[in-house]
């Protein structure tokens, strides 16, 4: 939808009106046939149609282009009233700067910033409203440190609130201790399994070393027996040599 033409000061050229909503162009796009539309209007139109609403020429959304520069300049120079005129704002400014003004306008209706409050208030009156809003929060004047809403003043009990907080802290501490306990047990169990596995591997290695040692001792005994046999044969040969 475009800008309401009643907000504008002076004459508005027909070429600056949307061919669909007939208000002053907002975020304009132009078809190849040079008819101009608000972006929201033409996108909505093309959902159900495939032609220009003015001359019925076939158009596609990909053919839409920004407004000619000279038309865009003419559009931006138009003077119009702030949308908050009914609330007392007398500002008149160019279309190019109207959005910036309205974002900061003192007469804009804005929501109260306090959670739970549904009041819409003029920006210029917001501070006054916040000072008396029943949803405003403040620190307990009795020193318990709690932030309370004005609407809860009569129901606030420092001792009860602190007792509740203590119970919550106790419950949280018990939960954390249990979590830490479970985590430590899990770690110890994992380390225990790792140690058992490592012990089994070491035991196997020891058995293998014992087996190798046994084979080596057997080989040594065989070598010693062969060496004795060889010595005896040498002695016998020496004795036979002497006799000869």
TrEMBL record:
The keyword Repressor does not apply. GO terms for molecular function: ligase activity; zinc ion binding. GO terms for biological process: regulation of canonical NF-kappaB signal transduction. Residues 192-243 form a coiled coil. InterPro entries: Znf_RING (IPR001841), Znf_RING/FYVE/PHD (IPR013083), Znf_RING_CS (IPR017907), Znf_TRAF (IPR001293). Residues 18-56 form the RING-type domain. PROSITE patterns: ZF_RING_1 (PS00518), ZF_RING_2 (PS50089), ZF_TRAF (PS50145). Keywords: Coiled coil, Ligase, Metal-binding, Zinc, Zinc-finger. Residues 101-144 form the TRAF-type domain. A zinc finger (TRAF-type) spans 101-144. This is RNF41 ligase. The gene is Rnf41_0.
